[in-house]
Design brief:
Blueprint (H helix, E strand, L loop, with lengths): L2 E5 L3 H13 L3 E6 L2 H11 L3 E5 L7 H11 L4 E5 L5 H5 L5 E6 L4 H49 L3 H15 L3 H12 L1
Parallel strand pairs: 1-2, 1-3, 3-4, 4-5
The structure holds magnesium ion.
The site of magnesium ion (MG) has 5 residues, from loops.
Length: 188
């Protein structure tokens, strides 16, 4: 079940949103009325999504979004009475995945939430892929370096050095990159 925090200073609007979400089987874990409270609730509940008004007392939604995004990878859907683009630029650094323009209707809210969740999933997958690719590249560099060391030390061909590295890692049942980093480490 998707957990959501709703941040909106106008209590009637907030109640409406919470009701719509609950009716659609979303789990609203907290509803608060300003940016500061949004930070606290986020620390406490780590929700899957935050729906956040822009104009609020104490701390506005943009500032709160930026602070939250430095700490967590939680998607944020902004609520705004302004359809202007003036905030879009400012919001780029934060994990803002969309805007909903007031007045809010069910027909507008629910698809926006769905899209936001799907987008967040895509971003998470992409991040995983990037991390994975980076590790593969790092591992490859280690293996190349270790291979070079073995070639020089033992006067081996590239293929023989690679096979030696591979055999060692298989014997020890560790990844080839781990064996490679040990060989590099020894030289230091
Ligand atoms: Mg407001």
């Amino acid at each position: 079940m998707t957990s959501i925090i709703v941040v909106e200073d106008e209590s009637i609007v907030r109640m409406d949103i919470v009701e719509m979400l609950a009716a659609a089987n979303y789990n609203v874990v907290a509803e608060v009325g300003n940016g500061e409270k949004a930070l606290e609730a986020t620390d406490k509940f780590r929700p899957d999504l935050i729906i956040m008004d822009i104009k609020m007392p104490k701390m506005d939604g943009l500032k709160a979004s930026k602070i939250i995004s430095k700490k967590y990878n939680i998607p944020i859907l902004l609520l705004t009475a302004y359809s202007h683009c003036e905030y879009v630029e400012e919001a780029k650094q934060a994990n803002i995945v969309g805007y909903i323009v007031k007045p809010i209707s069910e027909a507008q809210l629910l698809p926006a939430v769905e899209i936001a969740m799907r987008q967040a999933q895509n971003i998470a997958e992409l991040r995983f892929e990037v991390d994975h690719t980076k590790k593969q590249m790092d591992d490859r560099k280690l293996v190349e370096k270790a291979k070079g060391i073995l070639m020089k030390q033992l006067n081996l061909t590239e293929e023989a050095a690679y096979q030696k590295l591979r055999r060692k890692s298989m014997d020890k049942q560790v990844g080839i990159e781990i064996e490679a980093s040990k060989i590099i480490e020894k030289l230091r």
